[in-house]
Design a protein that fits this description.
Elements: H1 3-7, E1 11-17, H2 22-37, E2 44-48, H3 53-58, E3 66-71, E4 74-80, H4 85-93
Parallel strand pairs: 1-2
Antiparallel strand pairs: 1-3, 3-4
């Protein structure tokens, strides 16, 4: 799925992360579970800031992990730092 295709989805969860970030590593299994739970409902996209620096700059990502929820192609919500998986899941579901 291309970036353009993902952004055409009604709701998208995007995580900006770094492989060297301990908080991102903590969130990795949570993100895997959320991806499974949202399958068929909303794409879950993970962006490595070291590989996609321009994209991270475009969204003014200053800390990792940073989570963005897009609704109809626009940023509807954002949060930086670790967070409870159930809270993140319910936040995404509130936009579905």
């Amino acid at each position: 799925m291309t970036y353009e295709e993902v952004m055409k989805a009604p709701v998208v969860l995007m995580e900006f992360y770094a492989t060297w970030c301990p908080h991102c590593r903590q969130m990795a299994p949570v993100m895997d579970q959320i991806r499974e739970l949202l399958e068929g409902q909303a794409p879950v996209v993970q962006v490595d800031i070291d590989k996609e620096r321009q994209l991270a700059d475009d969204f003014e990502v200053e800390a990792t992990p940073t989570f963005l929820i897009f609704k109809d192609g626009e940023v509807a919500w954002r949060h930086s730092g670790e967070m409870d998986g159930n809270l993140l899941l319910s936040k995404v579901q509130s936009y579905l």
